[in-house]
User: What shape does this take?
Amino acid sequence: MMDPIRARVTPGVPAVETRPGLGALAVALSDAAQALEPPGPAIGPAAAVVAARAEAAGRQAALGPILANLEQALGATSLPPNVKVAIGQVLALQTPTSAPMTPEILKQAVAQSGLFLEAKLAAGDAPPMDLKAALLVLQQALGPTGQRGASRPQRPTPPPTAGGALVGQAPAKATLSLDADPVALAHELGSEVEQALARHTLHQLASLPDGPGAHWMFELPLATPQGPAIAQFAIDRDDPQRAGEDQAPTWQARFSLDIPPLGPVHVSVRMDGEQTAVTMWAEQPEGLARLRSRGDELSGALAAEVVFRPGSPHPPAPPPGRLVDQTS
Assistant: This one.
């Protein structure tokens, strides 16, 4: 089970007694959001951003199956040691769900998400070993990209867009064939790393400044007993000047995850000064019942009343010019 965000939000999966409550997650993420700076200025003219978004959307794929294949690839005797070391660096950045999720652990996970890599480099900081940096190191270890073969097609995954619906990825199983020729194996892994980097690029583009407020969108890989799962997050902050000198800006943290036995769960934590409002949706009746059974614990962890609802939230329609999911 994971806990909520409050950074103040902490990811939570109160499904198993040995795991912490979902309320801790909401508190931790909110605190992490306030400690981090936006990814930096826009990367160029609007047309360049649109082109980059369209190009990445055509190559991106779900991160969970890619991580599952990387984990399986560690057992391939044909891969050289430097590739296995690079794979290990990527897998080490998963957040385990077997231990309680604390605000400190969540804050570190957000910092290592890779969302802020370029901003840190632009500030002159030492290159961090975050998820994007680890994927780039692995890409280099796998060799040139020009002759890579096409990777095994994945089930279409909606591209992340600012203001769009969040989707958690359930634990994934590996589909990699370790009997493949060593060159073919490296080519397939390289193609999947490119897909993961393309999806990461979409999250960075969705986090570009767009007005006086701030918005961050990213994914955190979770290590579960059933395989790698992915939690998707979005953090929004209102314009601080609009709040006024005596009023703190409003923060909203949203996240979605899909971990057995809860199934798909969506959480919204809104903090307006000293007031905190929390809403949790569960798409499966059993998951909703489990969350409601921990209602008092979650309310205490968040210092707020928690509202439980069936189904999923209905996000607003994306602004004109944004990507539209045509896979469903």
Q: What stands out?
A: The chain has eleven helices and seven strands.
